[in-house]
Amino acid sequence: METSVDLGFLEPCEEWLLANKFFRSKVGGKPAWLELKNIPSPKDLLCDECGEPCIFLCQVYAPLEEQERCFHRMLFLFVCLKATCYQPNQNKNIKVLRSQLPRRNDFYDFDPPNENEPSEAIPSPVPLCAVCGCRGPQLCSKCKKMNYCGVVHQRIDWKQGHKAACGTTGEITRSDSDILFPQFEIVMEPEEIEPTEKLSEEDNVKKQMEEYEKLVKDGKIGELSEVSENEMDTYAEQVEDRHFDEFKKRIAFDPDQVLRYERKGDPLWQSPVVPSEIPCCELCGGRRVFEFQIMPQLLNSLKNENIDWGTLTIFTCEQSCDTADRSYAKEYVYKQDVISTEPVNAPETSS
Description:
The protein has four helices and 13 strands. Residues 220-225 and 340-345 have low confidence and may be disordered. The chain is globular, with a radius of gyration of 23 Å. A hairpin with a 7-residue loop joins strand 6 and strand 7 (147-148). The strands form two sheets. An eleven-stranded antiparallel beta sheet has the order 12-5-4-3-2-8-1-9-10-11-13, with no helix packed on it. It has a two-stranded antiparallel ribbon with strand order 6-7. It is of the alpha+beta class.
């Protein structure tokens, strides 16, 4: 049975095909920016926990056919590389940005490019950081040839080879920084699962109450008025386990999925710990809707032990409002981890 969800899988791809003008979804490497004049400033991509630059994780091409201003539309995710910044069910170390363009724009041809012959990316008129590919307003004071987003990445580049090349004659060339994630294309396919009986919300509540009553009857926990804190913790763990079991059951049909896309659908939660509300769009004040989520399977391909999540759920402006004034609009991400059943409020964040 085909569902309304599209699944994303990683595939190797020629690097030139992941350039901005081909509008591919991808993981790792440097961002293939969509709008090229108003690329976010370095301060827009600083981790709210430690203050250091976040690194490009992935981008998802998600045009909205019903809106001309969204003929090209890309969502970008950036994450901090410090393990200490990954706090349970918090998103201060993750950034999400939305960019969109009409079919006729200042950067790309009206018709699709030829994908049969290698070609270069459309260059940005603003300098980019040699390390991370984000906006790079800071110039090496010695050679005046390399740009950086800030002192943190300038130091990294100095240690990784620029020290030897700086000040020499000729053009400076370098390979990608060691801090970038491995690069893959994200290929989308419809989700297909075996049909199962789907319970209504009322039936789910009834089922949970029946399970609770059975625990009381079996003497595993007391009546609600008599329940101790330890017994409540036991029941909470069972609720958590049931959510996680349902999560695992659903992804078992396609265990290699790294992304689930269903705009205006529902996330596949790992636990009952969800935000109480989703912040409204910072530009238009309208509500945000779920668009896609990054799955834990992606961690296996990133080769970095410092980063971790249960699932990253991305919510975007329902109207995908005009970004003309800012070009890159901040959207909302919630990082869910399976460790606690205490209810949470939506974390305050700039993303």
